[in-house]
Design goal:
The chain is α+β, with helices and mostly antiparallel strands. About 20% of the residues lie in helices and about 40% in strands.
Length: about 400
């Protein structure tokens, strides 16, 4: 029989059907009670009565700088008149790390009995492919900070407000984080707590005036390639380890990917390796005898047999640009727990794609966003990049005799 490219189920209703089929069994652990990390930190910014553009321009002066001669760091900002500036960083002695910020400039307001306002501009190298939101949440979690306001403008820009102690004084700090190329640029405007009612509008408008002059594309994470014969191409981070199962038939092909981390040897313990995330990919031939729903059920049984209990749905991920040769795709996220260790919380990311004569199944098992946010952000962002780059090839559309 010649297999033709077909779908037995109307794609308009596919999403709802898959949600029902992937609502796997789960025990009393299903509700963690921790709350989503994004809802705990993301809060609206206070609404302020701002100056008119003319009033703001009259009260400020423009500044444009190119720190260390680097195009990627060139910026412009409007600074309140009367403020002083620290020595400009324009030398060629430029070195950024991924851990410590490098100061680009500091502007100081006029001294007062209540303290002194200031603006700090800093930069460091960006790790991995995190968004601005993910990077900043990681930053504040590691610092034990709490936000008063936190909004996401886009994948490369966030803004927050928090109260911090600095030299025994309280300050309201409004922060803007911008990603440009492989750099993180952070702008912080400190206002003494006693002055915030008066200075808050200026704080907001000055921060809003900050712009990076030269937009630079981010350097992609180094990726390796794996081909399922002439059927599909998979790209994955080169730091991950791929394990391909022995190919017995083109009706079903599987590979596993592990995000591995070496644990340094300590006295009495040798060097070891920890699995930080696991991704599985399966290609299954579409046929008249087995529908997509049948294959989803089989996948459910396999996951349960591996000892993972799947709970309530966390989200449906709808902002993924799948390959143009994909006819249908859906990605869902579920709470998950290892039946042999219910002390740790996991997430299962589950994706189904249809293209040509194949169904494509992807699953990512990762520590949850609430338990290990930095690792979760790395794993989930890499997973999205893998889905975006996955490409059905000519062999997926060939008619074959069975």
């Amino acid at each position: 029989m010649i297999l033709r490219n077909f779908l037995n189920i109307n794609l308009v209703f596919m999403s709802a059907i898959l949600i029902i089929c992937t609502s796997f069994s789960f025990d009393a652990y299903a509700k963690s009670g921790k709350g989503d990390i994004f809802t705990r930190f993301k809060k609206p910014m206070p609404e302020l009565k701002l100056m008119s553009r003319q009033e703001f321009n009259k009260a400020t002066r423009p500044v444009r700088k190119k720190p260390y001669g680097q195009d990627v760091l060139e910026y412009s900002i409007r600074i309140p008149k009367g403020w002083t500036e620290r020595e400009d960083k324009s030398s060629s002695n430029f070195l950024l790390s991924q851990k410590l910020f490098l100061g680009l400039n500091v502007f100081y307001g006029k001294p007062s009995p209540d303290g002194r306002s200031r603006i700090e501009i800093e930069a460091l190298n960006l790790e991995g492919s995190l968004t601005a939101e993910q990077w900043y949440l990681k930053y504040i979690l590691e610092g034990g900070l709490t936000t008063e306001g936190f909004i996401t403008h886009d994948g490369n820009k966030i803004e927050s407000l928090m109260v911090v102690m600095d030299q025994d004084s309280s300050y309201y700090v409004r922060t803007m984080v911008l990603l440009n190329g492989d750099k993180v640029v952070m702008v912080k405007y400190f206002v003494p707590a006693q002055l915030i009612r008066v200075e808050a509008p200026m704080q907001e408008q000055v921060l809003s005036s900050f712009k990076l002059i030269n937009k630079v594309n981010r350097t992609p994470v180094k990726m390796s390639k794996y081909r399922f014969l002439d059927i599909a191409e998979l790209k994955y981070p080169s730091s991950w380890k791929l394990f391909a199962k022995k190919l017995r038939t083109i009706d079903r092909m599987d590979v596993s990917l592990l995000n591995l981390r070496e644990i340094e040897a300590q006295e009495g313990r040798p060097l070891s390796v920890s699995t930080e995330g696991k991704l599985e990919v399966a290609l299954v031939t579409a046929s008249h005898s087995s529908t997509l729903i049948d294959e989803v059920k089989k996948y459910k049984q396999k996951i349960e047999a591996d000892g993972m209990l799947i709970g309530e749905q966390i989200e449906v991920v709808d902002k993924i640009d799948y390959n143009e040769n994909i006819d249908f795709a859906i990605t869902e996220v579920y709470r998950s727990v290892d039946s042999t260790n219910n002390l740790s919380e996991y997430e299962l990311w589950f994706s189904v794609m249809v293209g040509g004569n194949y169904y494509y199944f992807f699953t990512l098992l990762t520590p949850s966003r609430n338990e290990r946010f930095a690792l979760w952000a790395e794993n989930s962002q890499n997973y999205k990049e893998i889905l975006k780059s996955f490409t059905p090839m000519s062999g997926a559309f060939m008619e074959r005799d069975y």
